[in-house]
Amino acid sequence: MFSEADLVALFLTLKLAGISTLVLLVLGTPLAWWLANSQWRFRFLVEAMVALPLVLPPTVLGFYLLVAFSPSSLLGQTFAAVFGQSLAFSFTGLVLGSVIYSLPFVIQPLQNAFVAIGTRPIEVAASLGASPMDRFCSIVVPLARPGFLSAMILGFAHTLGEFGVVLMIGGNIPGETQVASIAIYQHVESLQLASAHWLSSALLVISFALLIIVYAANPKARVLRWSK
Amino acid sequence: MSLDIKLSASANGFNLDIDLSLSANKVTAIFGPSGSGKTSLLRTIAGLDNQRSSGISFNGETWQSNGRAKAVFLPTHKRKLAYVFQEPSLFEHLSVMANIEYGANRTSTDQEGISPEQAIAALELTKLVERDVDTLSGGERQRVAIARALCSKPRVLLMDEPLSALDEASKKEILKMLVRLRNQLSIPIIYVSHSISEVARLADDLVLLERGSVVTSGDVQSILTQLDLSLAHGSDAESIIDAVVAEHDEEYGLTYLESRVGRFSVARKELELGESVRVMLSAKDVSLTLDRQRDTSILNIFPAMITEIKHAGPSQVTLKLNANDVPVLASLTKKSASLMKLETGMKVYLQAKSVALL
């Protein structure tokens, strides 16, 4: 069965995924809306940047984050000055890393959903007296609900499975940065295969269940198709 | 009340140059071939397209102006207008009733206008309000869209070819409802169309657009019968005659309509005595005789004078007649015109083979 340390790791993983997903929704929704509607000619640069974590080895991303978090960097210094702790090897650092790492998994379903709505329903709502915020809440959000659901679940599930980035920037501090994937790696290293089995199957079951929800909510399975 | 529009814009080689003043409480039809700028004009009025060099004011309230020092642009949702698009564009996530109430819920209750209940009655939606939006037919959807627009209590109603995507039966049905609504509403309606029959039935005023410019504008009766415009020469050319229901003849199943032209006999209609109606005479259904015919089956025969003759194609001529100061079009073959030796100033009798009513 699970050891107490395993349960802590599992709980930490869920907490990391939950907080990251929340942050991603708050930041990702306006960004996806902007990407779906912007006429800016260099929009593709932003799109490419958002998609980078899809192709970049997590170790590369983790390495650069580690550099950015170091006490000698501006970000690292500022954070240490304000919060009195280092970003590297901290839970906050993990959240930051996860948000960047899972960004495309939240942006793309949202952007696709926003594009699919088109401009017409929004124009109709405007002509009926709805302000921009009102239109977003009363028309866009309900019409993009499957997109929001997919974005949430994909962001959450992808953060669950994160390994490389965490290893680089979080290290392996139980209760602070030791997430399930890291704990599994450690179990295997020290030949505790039974424990590795338990934790792995927990991640497998959770991830599979989440993906089932995504595909059931999007029968046409457009969620995981990246091109429009 | 008036809506003043000054618009000059160019995009992709297409120029829009319009200077219009539309009067209130009237239906103004914007008529023109596709690509003439009708929709651009309507979208600019609504604030959906921000044509930078436009000036629009409604009742003295500036909606947008291109003043260098202080450019004004009132966003669509603050213009208190409603827009009916060619496609119904219902909100798919809302019920029929919630669609209808969407605008109403965003309007202050003390503003004058039509209530959801009145709109539902006017567009005969009582049986549909319980239904899901995706179970409605095209015509039903457009009726919901029109009701939704009306309930937002707009100060001006913009309609962009609302019937053009519908089948003939729905077109006719909705047109009838619109004619009824026109008489009830006290707001200006701007109706974009490329169908003469819709314009003839609905509009009071007509603005003719071509390649982004106003060719002419004025009251619909005189513009439809202007022989120097192409409107009068098409196969769908029509004349409009205002009439009043005078009498029902139960014996023959007829309704008599009194007009300046004379007394029309039409098949019995459920109309109240004294009600105003519009009689439409299709140019190709009008024939002429030199003397008053006694031995004819045609009932609607009126004296008139030829005021203008114009060739319309290789075999046809179009004549403009003056029937007691009402302009009426007749489309004849060149051969008949020549055999009858028709000339301007001649007194003739016009026979209407069929008369449409709305």
Overview of the structural elements:
The complex is a heterodimer of chains A (about 230) and B (about 350). Chain A has eleven helices and no strands. Chain A is mainly α and about 230 residues long. Helices cover about 75% and strands about 0% of the residues of chain A. With about 350 residues, chain B is an alpha+beta fold. Chain B has two domains: about 1-235, P-loop containing nucleotide triphosphate hydrolases (Rossmann fold, 3-Layer(aba) Sandwich), CATH 3.40.50.300; about 240-355, OB fold (Dihydrolipoamide Acetyltransferase, E2P), CATH 2.40.50.100. Chain B has eight helices and 21 strands. Chain B has helices at about 40-45, 95-105, 115-120, 140-150, 170-185, 195-200, 220-225, 335-340, and strands spanning about 1-10, 15-25, 25-30, 55-60, 60-65, 70-75, 80-85, 155-160, 190-195, 205-210, 215-220, 240-250, 255-260, 265, 275-280, 285-290, 300-310, 315-325, 325-335, 345-350, 355. The mean pLDDT of chain B is about 85. The chains are: A mainly alpha (about 230), B alpha+beta (about 350). At the A-B interface, helix 6 and helix 7 of A face strand 7 of B.
Please give a quick description of this structure.
With 228 residues, chain A is mostly helical. Helices cover 76% and strands 0% of the residues of chain A.
Keywords:
heterodimer; A: mainly alpha; MetI-like fold; 11 helices; 76% helix; B: 358 residues; alpha+beta; Rossmann fold; OB fold (Dihydrolipoamide Acetyltransferase, E2P); five-stranded antiparallel beta sheet
